[in-house]
Amino acid sequence: xxxxxxRVLIVASIPGSLFAIAIFITLVAxxxxxxxxxxxxxxxxxxxxxxxxxxxxLDCTFCHRNTATGGAIGGMTAGIPDVQQCMFCxxxxxxxxxxxxxxxxxxxxxxAEIDKVRHAWQQQRAIDWExxxxxxxxxxxxxxxxxxAGFDCATCHGDVGSVGQVVQVRSLNMGDCVGxxxxxxxxxxxxxxxx
Amino acid sequence: xxxxxxxxxxxxxxxxxxxxxxxxxxxxxxxxxxCQACVIACQAExxxxxxxxxxxxxxxxxxxxxxxRYWEGEFPNVKARFIPVLCQHCGNAPCEPVCPxxxxxxxxxxxxxxxxxxxxxxxxxxxxxxxxxxxxxxxxPQWPESLHAQLNPDVTVRTQGLIEKCSMxxxxxxxxxxxxxxxxxxxxxxxxxxxxAQSCPTSAIIFGDWKDQNSRISRLAKGTRAYHMxxxxxxxxxxxxxxxxxxxxxxxxxxxxxxxxxxPLPVING
Lengths: 195, 270
Fold this sequence. Notes:
The complex is a heterodimer. By secondary structure, chain A is mainly alpha-helical. Chain A has helices at 2-32, 49-55, 60-63, 66-69, 83-90, 108-122, 143-148, 154-157, 174-183, 190-193. By secondary structure, chain B is an alpha+beta fold. In chain B, 20% of the residues lie in helices and 16% in strands. In chain B, the strands form four sheets. Chain B has a four-stranded mixed beta sheet. Chain B has a two-stranded antiparallel ribbon with strand order 2-3. Chain B has a two-stranded antiparallel ribbon with strand order 4-5. Chain A binds chain B through residues 70, 73-76, 136-138, 140, 142, 144-145, 148-150, 181, 184-192, 194-195, and chain B through 8-16, 105, 107-108, 111, 113, 115-118, 153-157, 167, 170-171, 174-175, 178-179, 181-182.
């Protein structure tokens, strides 16, 4: 009888635990990662940061121009460079298969990716980059004061310059921000970040 | 800025010290023509949804600044009086202690700030506000399709079920501070204006810093016309009104028509 009772209890607990796991996966887990932590999205062009930063030696702000200077949008976003800005260099760099003469990339794959940029430019069409870092709408983050305070881009973004595909490396939730603000004696008033 | 004394990196703001500013406003009732330009400017600046007729019928109008209109006298000597009423950013705010989740707090710069993502919509603050300037979002905000690109990215779009109110354009204040540290020179009086003050055609609304003794508002508030709205409640508003100058009143009537008109204002400081 005792054995039967135990078996009944075990069998009866299976649906319950499955239900709890299902609830965790569908409701709790997405909330823990809410809005701030996404897997790396698939970009329309396989842009490689490491080529531009490590091999070519560009500074982050060479392309992400709004970050430190504020610009028209006041440093609210780092700013995805527009196609025209890509073409500052790529009108002369790796131009072999489309348009004007230039040197060809070693890899056919890389050449194909650059050709996409040139095609977009010729058709006067924007590239639909997928955004990696996105904060909720009630947060007003501006790069400018953080850069002015002397922080490196890598503090929050990780070592983007050495990776091909950019991923979000910090949670960038409120605890993450406030922890850093406290550690650096920065403002922690609500209106500093919340808008 | 304080950071120079603290020896920190340029642009870094040190928390905990005494704040450099105490923002405030002077509203000259004598100059207000009731044109509602401030109301519209506020609406556009702060992503306030369009008030349709139904909201007026239900008394659910969403306005962060409103023009109160009073009629005085009998025909034919009727006069219209206008008072722009917005959040007074009280130094002793009745709305703040009643919030169960600390969604409304006082900033060190004298602003009464509302943190929307913390608000749970109990509406205690709105009920406790003697100026009735807090607005509850009964519905999710809606704009016509043509206005979707018009929304101000610096101001959050509030959702249904929470209280909102005048922020004294805190996003403009923050932006001005960033420009201050970028340019390396302190902002001058009048550099920074909230949307309502900027749009006022008669400059009836003047924004400034109470801590600057030479600012326009500090000088105006020393005059004999200055008073606080509902001063007897002891809310210590940061907004000072200048009473109407009425040429038809005799000198005696002018002196007694407002009980606080000739009483010096309490000293406003941080």
